[in-house]
Write a structure and sequence with these properties.
The chain is built from 6 helices and 3 strands. It is mainly alpha-helical. A hairpin with a 2-residue loop joins strand 2 and strand 3 (about 95-100).
Length: about 120
């Protein structure tokens, strides 16, 4: 039955069918949302941006982000738990880095989106 509110009934039905076939499971959607919730915190985003420049220890991350060492440590734990950053121990020191190239892409795309010209 044609919908009187839609001028593109057939195209929208096809798009809806493709969406149903390709939409992620609830569990997968929740995992993706968790990553974005973690990145939605300003301090954590600053930490990620700093780590995009190279490995750093918690002390330098605190300096760069104008935060306390304990605050940065707390955020790093959350970032590690969500596979956004990874840690390597060198003797007494722990250095943090971005977990993988996907995080680079997500942040770069966010920055590009900010500077995107709107139609």
């Amino acid at each position: 039955m044609p919908n009187m509110y839609c001028d593109h009934q057939k195209e929208h039905e096809l798009a809806g069918q493709r969406a149903k076939e390709n939409i992620l499971s609830t569990a997968e959607v929740e995992k993706i949302c968790a990553v974005f919730r973690v990145l939605a915190d300003g301090t954590r985003m600053k930490i990620v941006q700093a780590l995009l420049q190279g490995e750093m220890c918690v002390y330098h991350l605190a300096e760069v982000t104008d935060s306390t060492v304990s605050g940065v440590s707390h955020h790093l734990r959350i970032l590690r738990d969500n596979n956004i950053v990874k840690a390597k121990r060198y003797g007494k020191n722990v250095e943090y880095s971005i977990a993988d190239e996907h995080i680079h892409k997500i942040v770069r795309m966010g920055i590009e989106h900010l500077t995107c010209e709107r139609e």
